[in-house]
Amino acid sequence: MITDLKYPVYPVLDVDLAVIKENAQVICTLCAARGITVAGVVKFSDGDFAITRAYADGGCEQIASSRTIHLERIKEADPEITTMLIRIPMLSEADRVVQCCDISLNSEESVLRRLNEAAREHDKVHSVVLMQDVGDRREGVYGRERLIQLALLVEKELKNLYLMGIGASFACVSGVLPDWDNLSDLAESAAQIEKLIGRKLEVVSGGSSITLTMVAAGAPIPSKINHLRIGGAIANPIGMRVNRGVVIDGMREDAFKLTAEIVEVGEKPSPPGGSRKNWSGNIIEFEDKGVRKRAIAAVGSQDIGDCSQLIPRDPGVEVIAGSSDHTVLDVTESEREWKPGDTVSFSMFYMPLLQCFSTSHVAMRF
User: Fold this and answer.
1) CB 352 within 8 A of CB 1
2) Residue 142 neighbours by CB under 8 Å, 6+ apart
3) Less crowded by CB within 10 Å, the N or C end of the chain?
4) Which of the residues are catalytic?
5) Is 47 left (phi over 0), alpha (psi -120 to 50) or beta?
């Protein structure tokens, strides 16, 4: 990640931290009205601490990521931040997990036992949230009886682990959305576990950003659901609006702007002139619109992944196609006279944003 910009460097991602903080405040306030706290997920930013700070200052109770290395950096920068690992820990990283993660999501007995050993070795008590599969078929124990067995194991035997709560995931693998029925399944599991251990669970985590479809709509949610893990919907709510129809008053979509330099402009026929199998082996169909003015931006899949997930800020510019190093634009309808050396700016969906932070080819300007 390039951040020391002493001369023009493209492509460059501009990051408005004030917008991210404001969005976090809006989401946390919305959720608090339903008795729900928020873990702010910063995995898209490669664990960037400036973005972490904006989430924390915006009211997120924990800072979460799927990568231990992110949480290590965050703990080093501010040991007071409560960190949550949202991917099931690998056995091989158990020692690192108990040192940099205050909380981890879990579903495997062998991993829980190893975390307990590691926590004992470091004289720590590590908090765990047990995941239940209530439909999406990603991580989580399938079947309430087994979930209860694991909960009792943690509560009664694994003395260096603290059973903080239970949770579930939605819409990550199979597209199963949260609803009253599957959230009630999770809530009932929590109630049964609480009865057996004789205390309330601190966390019943009812999913991620996708559960905002219910929160924002004012849909009924079981009262035991008191926690969500929210990332992209805070920093970059475009996807929730476009893909899920969720519009939340006060949320802004201008926290990120990707700018790339134009390297070629010219008029060309819109359909290809030969074989239509592209560099990745896909056959792409192009509508014949006649001769069009095209511009090529020096940004490609090595920088941002799928160029079709870019949203030109100039309404007269359209993304046509891309390769590893180039994004082809139709600029015929733009009022601007494009030439090499000009720059073009984009908003973007979640995956290109994640890719920007994961590569060394995109400069950052905070």
Assistant:
1) no
2) 133
3) C
4) 43
5) left
- Residue 173's pLDDT is 87
Contacts of 90 (CB under 8 A, 6+ apart): 111
Q: What is the dihedral of CA 349, 351, 353, 359, to 10 degrees?
A: -160
Pairing mode, if any, of strands 291-297 and 327-330? Answer: antiparallel
Contacts of 58 (CB under 8 A, 6+ apart): 20, 21, 22, 23, 24, 25, 27, 28, 40, 234
Residue type, 42: V
Mean pLDDT by 10 residues, the chain (366 residues): 70 98 98 98 97 98 98 98 98 98 98 98 98 94 97 98 97 91 98 98 97 96 98 95 94 98 96 65 79 97 96 98 96 98 98 95 95
Distance CA 148, CA 361 (A): 47
Q: Which residues pair with 260 in a beta bridge?
A: 344
Q: pTM value?
A: 0.93
Identify the H or E element spanning 144: helix 144-156
Residue 198 carries which side chain, given as an amino acid letter? G
Task: Quote the pLDDT of residue 174.
Answer: 84
DSSP element (H, E) containing 30: helix 17-32
Percent share of the chain, pLDDT over 70: 96
Chain-wide mean pLDDT for the chain?
Answer: 95
How many residues are present in the chain?
Answer: 366
Chain centroid, CA 308 distance in Å: 19
Q: Cβ–Cβ contacts within 10 Å for residue 306, how many?
A: 14
Q: What whole-number distance in Å separates Cα of residue 291 and Cα of residue 145? A: 65
**pLDDT at residue 25 in the model:** 98
Which residue in 185, 179, 109, 177 sits closest to 146, CA to CA? 109
